[in-house]
């Protein structure tokens, strides 16, 4: 058998709400056994120390806490449906989600995949309590019960297309489910499988059965292989593992808990009673599993036994093991059973044992078994080549092998052979995400920690859960961030925070969870993908050492600046990079300014592109157009470098005596003055009242004097030459020759040209364009206005300081009322943290970055994060605790209040009064265009009907509530909704479901539609 990897797991067992607590309990040899909770059944009514007929000899067992808690809103399940669902379905939904996250997979990414779901389950006591109460059977009760639905719920809510089945082989159910999952993986039916087991004890029926069959321990505790063993103690719980073929797990960089080497399943056949175990069949299933695993019995270090603590069962299991291991003189195989700590979890017993074995191999220690200190001498363990785990067993450094047995009442036996994960499984050489493999140096210089949730309350809860877990971690913040980017995404509210240190990260998460203003700043709720416009800053934004800190901190930026420097150096006669890093003021000389700004713009834009920020709109101010042109594939980097270097060098050779003057006036206002000064022209038009004049200094002085007399504001710019003016003419011919050599084509991305003042329409940015570019005015205002009309959600400044985004916002504030400005380099000291914040800001707005590029390879190491923290605010349970018929005259006490309504789907009188009050409250927020009586009647009827069908309080329903996305409606609920509305609105003509479906987007849409129908009927 090819190896199958356990890559993720989650569980909840008595005394252990999660895998960490489960492992701690096992290592302490502790137990989670106690009194039967009053929520289940009144134990005193069914308890008889002598085991009288119809009674159990124990009032204790292993029970999980809060089995009624369920985060129905997370799965968009209405309260009414949640209340009808078997709690085993609810527990499995949450457990499966957390196990997938533990595997390093965002569960939403499995949607549509052929992922299989295999669930072991042997009890359906919820159905016994509800499907026999015929008057209260509803559509929700029907779909809320049944073995098949335990698996199908997981497949449905995660949108999984692979095999989905529930398995009932009694106590071996969940290990048989694992066996089937492995076979499905190896046959190619699925590439990922979720194998699980669940058991919730709702009635005393099995307690009574075990007692009457002589199998029940009076103290409710399993004592496997102990001299004190006297029967079974019931337990409950849920567990799930995520399985993948080992080669696939390694290829995808998933850390592996343990490897399943082989599994086998068989049956007792006709033996000494249908409920009696069969030694020879157990021996055969062990032999088959060893054979499939390719191991000898002597290689197995320990076995997690079925070990229920019944005298006969323990004896037969030890003899079966002994038949294969009796020759292990001097090195007996260790044997233990988790049932001593949590009880016999029946349908979940196999998964409980599997998780214990996987964790043991992962931690390289096998916990001691509770009750093992008083070994049953009749078992003659030493003679069988076996020993009980009385103390923890440290596993050797070499691969360790463990076995796991699970035997079902009725004769279906299962055994699995597991091995510790190979060392290479947790250290992948490279990880591919979104089909992109990074190349060269990567890393922002700071990680970005992400968390998403369907609501702000859920986000706060999960930020605290992550903060608590991270506080205890001793790994790099970068690897935690990278792992969060892979797993903690996909929900409506997106939180993102740059982080470089785990202590700082934990504190920041905790602060954000408790500070609403901070949380609002760090959280987005995008309606769609952002429409990004890149604005490339031009000359005048330069300063010594610009982006030097970013270069030192960000390998990604460093890589692209080095690329630009290598392309420029043959043409500049020196290194632009070295100039920037040294802080040389020579950067203000034109021959260096222009290539340096080009290099910075190219490196920043290329870094964004590597991160998956694909711009839709491009605009460059003056020399900023060169980097924009490279991004738009007008020409390659090398040609652009040649051209910008020549441009700067030629301009610097021009004689001094030119300058530029910013004026608060329009070009039309300045035209009369310019007519008298042929050596001055309009250098730039940055807005309606933002004109820059460029030309001879003396002539500019005369114009400035005239403007001062007219009280028009002016400002002299610190420049070396009169750029974009008639004084540039002497360089045009030589530059044109170089431009012809460099070439230039039609941009492949929309470029809003500051030469043309508009979007280029299939026009080449060729030699003619770039030659004109030198002396033509920069029409930024016109180009930017047209860009804003395209509706970008984000203006991203690509340059050494934010200049253009502020100018663009002043042009048309209303165009970006809901948009954002993003500065990649917000100030002169900006580094990797600021670049990471820009990426975080874009992610919050809906961008899906290619996170691999944000981290160096050594930080792309999977880390298991705290799983999703579900809400326990909503509780769904059956009616009152079960009492004996002799004590009360009834089998089940009826529910009261909300619980009864959730079960029956009908409102009680006091609830109807509340519904009316809730409807009035909801009407207050409805559109007030029509205040006639029919409007109130319609709104009241719709809200009452929606609330009744979904089991919501009327106050929870608003006109903006989406029936499917927010309230969890489905086709069955729509049919009931139609009937309820027609009952409430007399005179309404008959409707079909097809009539309603197009109007069911929101409650408000439905109300408006029905208003018109009611109005037409009245008319």
TrEMBL record:
<dbReference type="InterPro" id="IPR014030">
    <property type="entry name" value="Ketoacyl_synth_N"/>
</dbReference>
<dbReference type="InterPro" id="IPR009081">
    <property type="entry name" value="PP-bd_ACP"/>
</dbReference>
<keyword id="KW-0045">Antibiotic biosynthesis</keyword>
<dbReference type="InterPro" id="IPR016035">
    <property type="entry name" value="Acyl_Trfase/lysoPLipase"/>
</dbReference>
<feature type="region of interest" description="Disordered">
    <location>
        <begin position="37"/>
        <end position="63"/>
    </location>
</feature>
<dbReference type="Pfam" id="PF00109">
    <property type="entry name" value="ketoacyl-synt"/>
</dbReference>
<dbReference type="InterPro" id="IPR050091">
    <property type="entry name" value="PKS_NRPS_Biosynth_Enz"/>
</dbReference>
<dbReference type="InterPro" id="IPR018201">
    <property type="entry name" value="Ketoacyl_synth_AS"/>
</dbReference>
<keyword id="KW-0808">Transferase</keyword>
<dbReference type="Pfam" id="PF02801">
    <property type="entry name" value="Ketoacyl-synt_C"/>
</dbReference>
<dbReference type="Pfam" id="PF00550">
    <property type="entry name" value="PP-binding"/>
</dbReference>
<dbReference type="InterPro" id="IPR036736">
    <property type="entry name" value="ACP-like_sf"/>
</dbReference>
<dbReference type="InterPro" id="IPR016036">
    <property type="entry name" value="Malonyl_transacylase_ACP-bd"/>
</dbReference>
<dbReference type="InterPro" id="IPR020841">
    <property type="entry name" value="PKS_Beta-ketoAc_synthase_dom"/>
</dbReference>
<feature type="domain" description="Ketosynthase family 3 (KS3)">
    <location>
        <begin position="1"/>
        <end position="420"/>
    </location>
</feature>
<dbReference type="GO" id="GO:0016746">
    <property type="term" value="F:acyltransferase activity"/>
</dbReference>
<dbReference type="InterPro" id="IPR020806">
    <property type="entry name" value="PKS_PP-bd"/>
</dbReference>
<dbReference type="Pfam" id="PF00698">
    <property type="entry name" value="Acyl_transf_1"/>
</dbReference>
<feature type="domain" description="Carrier">
    <location>
        <begin position="933"/>
        <end position="1014"/>
    </location>
</feature>
<dbReference type="InterPro" id="IPR014031">
    <property type="entry name" value="Ketoacyl_synth_C"/>
</dbReference>
<keyword id="KW-0012">Acyltransferase</keyword>
<dbReference type="InterPro" id="IPR016039">
    <property type="entry name" value="Thiolase-like"/>
</dbReference>
<dbReference type="InterPro" id="IPR001227">
    <property type="entry name" value="Ac_transferase_dom_sf"/>
</dbReference>
<keyword id="KW-0597">Phosphoprotein</keyword>
<keyword id="KW-0596">Phosphopantetheine</keyword>
<dbReference type="InterPro" id="IPR014043">
    <property type="entry name" value="Acyl_transferase_dom"/>
</dbReference>
<protein>
    <submittedName>
        <fullName>Acyltransferase domain-containing protein</fullName>
    </submittedName>
</protein>
